[in-house]
Amino acid sequence: MQQHRIEADYLLETPDDPERTAATIAGEQSSGTFVRVPGETPELLERAAARVVKLEVIDRFTGQRALPTAHPTPDNERLTRARLTLSWPLATMGPSLPNLMATVAGNLFELKQVSGLRLLDIRLPEPFAAAYTGPKFGVEGTRRLAGVHGRPLIGTIIKPSVGFSAEDTATLVARLCEAGIDFIKDDELQADGPNCPFDDRVAAVMREINRCADRTGKKPMYAFNLTGDLDEMKRRHDLLLKQGATCLMASLNSVGLVGMIELAKFSQLPIHAHRNGWGYLSRHPLLGWSFAAWSKFWRLAGADHMHVNGLANKFSEPDESVIESARSCMEPMFATRPCTVMPVFSSGQGVAQVPGTYAAVNTTDLIVTAGGGILAHPGGPGAGVSALREAWDAALQGVPQADYARTHPALQTALGATA
Amino acid sequence: MQQHRIEADYLLETPDDPERTAATIAGEQSSGTFVRVPGETPELLERAAARVVKLEVIDRFTGQRALPTAHPTPDNERLTRARLTLSWPLATMGPSLPNLMATVAGNLFELKQVSGLRLLDIRLPEPFAAAYTGPKFGVEGTRRLAGVHGRPLIGTIIKPSVGFSAEDTATLVARLCEAGIDFIKDDELQADGPNCPFDDRVAAVMREINRCADRTGKKPMYAFNLTGDLDEMKRRHDLLLKQGATCLMASLNSVGLVGMIELAKFSQLPIHAHRNGWGYLSRHPLLGWSFAAWSKFWRLAGADHMHVNGLANKFSEPDESVIESARSCMEPMFATRPCTVMPVFSSGQGVAQVPGTYAAVNTTDLIVTAGGGILAHPGGPGAGVSALREAWDAALQGVPQADYARTHPALQTALGATA
Questions:
Q1: Cα nearest neighbour of B131 on chain A
Q2: Percentage of residues in chain A with pLDDT exceeding 90?
Q3: Are B98 and A227 a contacting pair at CB < 8 A?
Q4: Higher-confidence residue: B234 or A416?
Q5: Average pLDDT, chain A
Q6: Is a pLDDT exceeding 70 seen at residue A75?
Q7: B5-14 sheet: strands from edge to edge
Q8: Under CATH, domain B5-131 is a member of which superfamily?
Q9: Cβ-Cβ contacts under 8 Å, B71 against chain A
Q10: 3-state SS track over chain B
Q11: Domain locations in chain B?
């Protein structure tokens, strides 16, 4: 373990000398403090200190700092942006995800010399691969349980997000089942409130799902949002198993890393990982986390599906960022254990985004969810599902959407409603 | 429970109409989606929708958006900043901290109409007070275990942060004990790595701490960083109890909310809550979290001590923000259950900050930690502790520090070293 090292890449902006700033970050995040203390010997530094592996200046300019800081301003404010790679010996922390987080994303974002810092990526040595659950289902397990092959899972979200009773939810689910939906998820705001208790919702919804499976031989996958305290999640998981459910959902920023690690340990179902709150972690381009770095924590902890937003989404995220996130889900984390997960597209998705999405990711190993895009189809949810299926059929066959729509009325109507 | 409501205050910036933006946020975070869907009836909205309680415009100006967004730009970019208060019925989620987080801090930061959004504060209805552990020790329990009354706990952090063996750590602890230290903490980078295993460190350190307690009748409080997976934290906690330790430490962003809730359930020791990573949650003034809002989650979950940075700190945080955070720790959360916690001052702290800190918070119910400020004192750690104690004695007696230093050489030396 002595030789193994962890690496992290950052985007850095500083009004100070970039090399001095890089050394300060490395010191702060390993042996150092602000002043030299007794005991910080050369041998200790060799054994325990973080190293600046690479510092590549990408821009020098005169302008405004990305983030306010009390660092003194020279007369002519010169700022440097750089890509910085640090490495740490695994021996100071061991293969522990919570302690990794404190190391690569701890007290470094607020350093005075830093007017911008974003964690771009991390690379973990092999001992991490064996230390955590990882995705138990991933793409293959999800496809097997959902009975969908050769195309994306077409999914939707129960809307209104909150306010439906358990029976209201089941009524909508029954319609979606009839429409041939592959995947349905609870909204992240719906977990176990008095207005729609989890147990009642599971009973009512699974009655419809199991009925559909009995009738058609295909069981739509429903991701029940079991986010809550640990004992609640365990109890809800066991209920899902008993009722024949095939997926559970958890809000990552709500359960946190230890909550997710524990959930993954006992879960016998695919974990649909919702990233709500992602905006506060990522919205500023020079602060916080890139999805590629952040999602590796959850992938190794045990997520099977990761939300990545969608093209032309209703949020502020640009398409390039969405595509980069989706692709990162499919990049292996370790040679021995890829920990690849299924990206989930959502947010204002409809037929319009299908050709671009397929062109960008070049795979069908996706879950594509549309809330309004299915439920607000003028022909009803059934036509909404058909339209999305038809849009993917067209994309997979390489037929322009408008041409395909001429013989597929649900798609035609969806295109008309979008235009 | 039907009548109880949750409230959250935000600082909002928008290039769009502020009332429309407020309504969009309320809709997105309750019943709504981007388009009207069947089932979103007036009755459902009355029962389940979030309400805009208050929208107070504080600035209208022409300028640059705080955060980039794809929202269309009018020719003359007019931006509005406003304070927004939303409320939600408790009945849609119940008194669940994880689901509260998905509601007040979920998918709202990334809305296209939002060019800045920061959660300023939250107010929770009484059912939350009974649902979680809250601080089991707080100020009183901490003072009782540390044997310190009428003044702040003077503390330090083991430095170098990583690299010491268990015995190296104990050697330093022995010197700090001799110097009369009240409180010592592990660095957040030091948990259970192969270079300094937790069990070895506890055994070596508690040997010195217990020896000191036997000799002097006062047991310095040592916050052992047990951050890790849940079973590891449980095992480490039990070891701490067995060895007579009086405090444990956990990194909040590493364990996450469910990890903290579980830890607090079984912990029989005060929980020293480290906020490393706070920079990525808070560094931009128009994004993320204020400490007052964020800390309420952890206070109710069970933290006893919360880090608040320090005056004239080595990070980028301004003094006003530090003071506001410290004061928020002492504001009651519920009429029946204050959940007040002990603020922990740190980061480049020394004798210089003492008068300002006392003037700002007007209480001695604090933990004041100095790493370099104690360990790098020219007279050694013992003189470092004495200097800080003397600085607080002077502040409490209302004597100017320079005057007091004339008869207190350790303080005199510290002032000289600072100047």
A1: A229
A2: 85
A3: yes
A4: B234
A5: 94
A6: no
A7: B51-62, B78-89, B5-14, B116-123, B287-289
A8: RuBisCO large subunit, N-terminal domain (3.30.70.150)
A9: 316
A10: CCCCEEEEEEEEEECCCHHHHHHHHHHHCCCCCCCCCCCCCHHHHHHHCCEEEEEEEEEEEECCCCCCCCCCCCCCCEEEEEEEEEEEEHHHCCCCHHHHHHHHCCCCCCECCCCEEEEEEEECCCHHHHHCCCCCCHHHHHHHHHCCCCCCEEEEECCCCCCCCHHHHHHHHHHHHHCCCCEEECCCCCCCCCCCCHHHHHHHHHHHHHHHHHHHCCCCEEEEECCCCHHHHHHHHHHHHHCCCCEEEEEHHHHHHHHHHHHHHHCCCCEEEECCCHHHHHCCCCEEECHHHHHHHHHHHCCCEEECCCCCCCECCCHHHHHHHHHHHCCCCCCCCCCCCEEEECCCCCHHHHHHHHHHHCCCCCEEECCHHHHCCCCCHHHHHHHHHHHHHHHHHCCCHHHHHHCCHHHHHHHHHHC
A11: 5-131, 138-418
Mean pLDDT computed over A86-93: 95
pLDDT value at residue A35: 64
What residues in chain B have per-residue pLDDT under 70?
A: 1-2, 33-37, 74-76, 418-419
Model confidence at A113, in pLDDT bands (50, 70, 90)?
very high
- Chain A interface, best mutation among B71, B187, B254, B377, by max A CB count within 10 A: B254
Given a cut of 60, whether residue A311 has pLDDT beyond it is yes
Instruction: State how far the Cα of A285 lies from the Cα of B68, in Å rounded to an integer.
Output: 8
| Among B34, B189, B248, B351, the residue to mutate for chain A (most A Cβ within 10 A) | B189
Strands (DSSP E) found in A35-169: 51-62, 78-89, 116-123, 153-157
Task: Yes or no: say if A196 and A158 are a contact pair by the CB < 8 Å rule.
Answer: no
pLDDT at site B161:
85
Neighbouring C-beta atoms of residue A49, cutoff 10 Å = 23
Q: How far is CA A357 from the centre of its chain?
A: 17
The alpha carbon of residue A27 is apart from the nearest alpha carbon of chain B, in Å, by: 9
A92·B261 Cβ contact <8 A: no
Query: Nearest CA to A276 among A102, A137, A157, A145?
Result: A157
What pLDDT sits at residue B46?
86
> Quick one: what percent of chain A has pLDDT higher than 70?
97
Which of A162, A258, A278 lies nearest to residue B259, judging by beta carbons? A258
| Mean pLDDT of the residues in chain B | 94
Rounded to two decimals, what is the model's pTM? 0.96
pLDDT for the residue numbered B33: 62
Q: Is the pLDDT of residue A74 over 70?
A: no
**What pLDDT shows up at residue A372?**
81
Residues of A in contact with B40 (CB under 8 A): 159-160, 163
- Kindly indicate the confidence band of residue A211, based on its pLDDT and cuts at 50, 70 and 90: very high
Alpha carbon of B59: minimum distance to chain A alpha carbons (Å): 20
**What is the pLDDT at residue A46?**
86
Are A206 and A169 contacting, i.e. CB atoms less than 8 angstroms apart? no
The first and second tokens of residue A393, run together, are 């059929």
- In chain B, positions 237-276, which contact chain A (CB-CB < 8 Å)? 251, 253-262, 274, 276
Residue whose C-alpha is closest to residue B132's, from B225, B16, B258: B258
Which of 339-358 (A) contact B at CB < 8 A? 348
Q: Which residues of chain B are within 8 Å of residue A69 when distances are taken between CB atoms?
A: 316
Give the pLDDT confidence score for residue A418 in this predicted structure.
57
The candidate with the shortest Cα–Cα distance to A283, out of B115, B277, B207, is B115
Determine contact: B29 vs chain A, CB below 8 A: yes
Domain A138-418 has CATH 3.20.20.70: no
